Amino acid sequence: MSREGYQVPTASAGSGAVARGSTGMQDTRSSIMSYLCGDCGGSVHLGKDSTVACPHCAGRVLYKERTKRMVQFEAR
Amino acid sequence: MAPSTKAQWAQPPSKEELERRNTVNINKETVTNTVSTDFPGHFPGEDHAFSIDRFQSGFDITFHQNDQFHASFSLVGIDASLANAFRRILIAEIPTLAIENVFITNNTSVIQDEVLAHRLGLIPFKGGREGLRNFLRFKKGEDAQDYDTVQLDLNVTCTVNTDASPNETDPLKAYHNAHVYAKDITFTPQGRQEQYFSGEDAIVPVNPDILIAKMRPRQTIELSMYMNLGVGSDHSKFSPVATASYRLMPTIKITKPIIGADAQKFANCFPEGVIGLEKVSKKEAGQRGSGYEGHAGELKAVVVDPMRDTVSRECLRHEEFEGKVQLGRRRDHFIFSVESTGQWDSDELFLEAVKKLKQKCKKLEDQVDNMVR
Ligand SMILES: [Zn+2]
């Protein structure tokens, strides 16, 4: 049950050369990132070359989303 | 020639001498006679070897208060080393169940993940005694088993309360779940835990109103927790007591009469109920050399309840009481105070400490036996 698009790249035997700057099959999908607007709190999707601004309120402060993975802490 | 009398040291110690040995003197600026001397070879001609019969005949326990969260009792006729061993075992060696791992899926509240995890760890929990005592074990391996790990969950989201007036300023009324409390934690029994921790015996926080975090609409906390058994020496969240302490029984000896206005002033030097005022009787006043001559009917200071004294030494600061009072503490009278955090009852904890010390002694005995063999 993978909750995130990112997959750990595995160097499979035989194919030694992996193209840099490319994740292959998920090329278009992974170039769109989701952020949170600091002003209005809305979700903002940005492509590789789009301007850093919120389409809802034009706010220029965007926050990275928290990972959707579970994080373990020691209660100490 | 007079019959030869025994040397003074060859006589058994007098009552006064025994009391002197058993008292720690608390003077104006010093504390003297602090070391116990009841061990073999210290007094010539006296046998102070430890024997279980001697201990039993001299030992006494009295309870002053026995509630779930606070037990107070006196141990009389015991050495400081043993009393202190019980105190230390109470604090650091009796196992309790506490949150050890926190798995956070989402936390958008203002409180950081690690701080939140730390706060959760400090919450005291209670559950079925039978399960806690006999079913649960210390966690050994990596894998969680029903007998060593208890799972809890906390899933709360703050939302706007549409029923509240738009001008409402109290966040508790304006929003749902503005405050996250310990009672929001849910327990999910795993495997055989169902038998031991269901209904009344479910694992729940001792104090349901402990505030964990504050939130505003659209903030959310989504996490699960694993509890393990642990001991206080590892982390104080595992300590079964909020505090376990003892103090020595105070003694107040009025050596010369304190009469009249002085008596009232003397009583005011102590907490309420320690010193009482009594009328000097005609008999006392008639007695020569008693110090009460001609004071019949006046008030004199008498010691009523030295246990309530805090030994502030306030009375030693005043000139008029100089040489009239001797403060001290009884070396072998320990007034214990045990405050449980709620997983166990306070008196139960003391018994558990005795059990633990016994186990340790057994272990040592085995090792000594092996050494001799
Ligand atoms: Zn915005």
TrEMBL record, chain A:
<feature type="compositionally biased region" description="Low complexity">
    <location>
        <begin position="11"/>
        <end position="24"/>
    </location>
</feature>
<keyword id="KW-0479">Metal-binding</keyword>
<protein>
    <submittedName>
        <fullName>Uncharacterized protein</fullName>
    </submittedName>
</protein>
<dbReference type="InterPro" id="IPR039747">
    <property type="entry name" value="RPABC4"/>
</dbReference>
<dbReference type="InterPro" id="IPR006591">
    <property type="entry name" value="RNAP_P/RPABC4"/>
</dbReference>
<feature type="region of interest" description="Disordered">
    <location>
        <begin position="1"/>
        <end position="25"/>
    </location>
</feature>
<dbReference type="InterPro" id="IPR029040">
    <property type="entry name" value="RPABC4/Spt4"/>
</dbReference>
<keyword id="KW-0539">Nucleus</keyword>
<comment type="similarity">
    <text>Belongs to the archaeal Rpo12/eukaryotic RPC10 RNA polymerase subunit family.</text>
</comment>
<dbReference type="Pfam" id="PF03604">
    <property type="entry name" value="Zn_ribbon_RPAB4"/>
</dbReference>
<keyword id="KW-0862">Zinc</keyword>
Automatic annotation (TrEMBL), chain B:
<feature type="domain" description="DNA-directed RNA polymerase RpoA/D/Rpb3-type">
    <location>
        <begin position="70"/>
        <end position="367"/>
    </location>
</feature>
<dbReference type="InterPro" id="IPR036603">
    <property type="entry name" value="RBP11-like"/>
</dbReference>
<keyword id="KW-0539">Nucleus</keyword>
<dbReference type="InterPro" id="IPR022842">
    <property type="entry name" value="RNAP_Rpo3/Rpb3/RPAC1"/>
</dbReference>
<dbReference type="Pfam" id="PF01000">
    <property type="entry name" value="RNA_pol_A_bac"/>
</dbReference>
<dbReference type="InterPro" id="IPR050518">
    <property type="entry name" value="Rpo3/RPB3_RNA_Pol_subunit"/>
</dbReference>
<dbReference type="Pfam" id="PF01193">
    <property type="entry name" value="RNA_pol_L"/>
</dbReference>
<dbReference type="InterPro" id="IPR011262">
    <property type="entry name" value="DNA-dir_RNA_pol_insert"/>
</dbReference>
<dbReference type="InterPro" id="IPR036643">
    <property type="entry name" value="RNApol_insert_sf"/>
</dbReference>
<dbReference type="InterPro" id="IPR001514">
    <property type="entry name" value="DNA-dir_RNA_pol_30-40kDasu_CS"/>
</dbReference>
<dbReference type="InterPro" id="IPR033901">
    <property type="entry name" value="RNAPI/III_AC40"/>
</dbReference>
<comment type="similarity">
    <text>Belongs to the archaeal Rpo3/eukaryotic RPB3 RNA polymerase subunit family.</text>
</comment>
<dbReference type="InterPro" id="IPR011263">
    <property type="entry name" value="DNA-dir_RNA_pol_RpoA/D/Rpb3"/>
</dbReference>
<keyword id="KW-0240">DNA-directed RNA polymerase</keyword>
<keyword id="KW-0804">Transcription</keyword>
<protein>
    <recommendedName>
        <fullName>DNA-directed RNA polymerases I and III subunit RPAC1</fullName>
    </recommendedName>
</protein>
